[in-house]
Design brief:
glycosyltransferase, elongated, alpha/beta, about 300 residues, 4-stranded mixed beta sheet, 7 strands, Spore Coat Polysaccharide Biosynthesis Protein SpsA, Chain A
Amino acid sequence: MYRSQETLRELHRRLTAAIEPIDPQFELIFVEDCGGDHSWIVIEELAKQDQRVRGIQLNRNFGQHAATICGFAHSGGNWIATLDDDLEHLPEYLPELLKTAQQEKHDLVYGVYHERTHPFWRNITSHIARWLFNKAVPSLNYEYTSYRVIRGDVARAVTRFDSPFPFIDGYLSWLTNRYATVKVPHGKRNYGTSNYTFRKLVAYMINVFVTFSDLPLKIATWLGIIAFLVGMIWLVVILGRYLIGGISVSGYASLMASILSFGGIQLLVLGIFGEYLGRINFKSSKKPLFLVGKTINITAE
């Protein structure tokens, strides 16, 4: 939950209506990721009305993936469903996802969309990111979403990964290859706007590439090889022209262009190595992925 005070009551109503016919003994875990609004007050009210509601408030904003893993850590169900708080994920389709998982014996089922209701620019960037992720992490389901039904022990196994830059679907792709997808409609957001800005999406893409793939390092290697070959070819051309008398005055423009281009490649390669070194440093600091502040109806572990 992040700045979701307007949608929480409706989300609770629709979730209970969708899940009660399957099994009335379920739990709803609301992880409030310190959005700064009155979401926690609403969660407290819902928990008083419905003892199946469990509330967790993190000490500060740790991000969607960390908050979801926190929910996994405090779950007890045989099956775990994850969905966003903005009602773009329609709770009414959870029974269909669960039915597919149980009947076809999958560990993981994604709800994927016929058509997304996101803005045009976000749909384009999402398609580009998914294509790139597919190249970097071949085992990753191309159509992954945060609308999922996961076998409980598989979901809780995600909490055993020790990384300060979590990516749940990357973890799940490593834990199991028994997954399926179910086509579902994409709901419309009625309150507020998405918290994923263009800058955050780019940072998210970089995080996935650097944390779950060595593709950037391979790119850096090939850039170095290509730059070396181009430099050697250019040197041979210059020497050849000099020997046949084709060069009378040194060219300032070509010299500066070569310096800037090769210097840029060197800085890019150093930046890639810096990203990996930075992640090693963060991991060695042993910072917790999340810290729980307040809880409601959560049994002490």
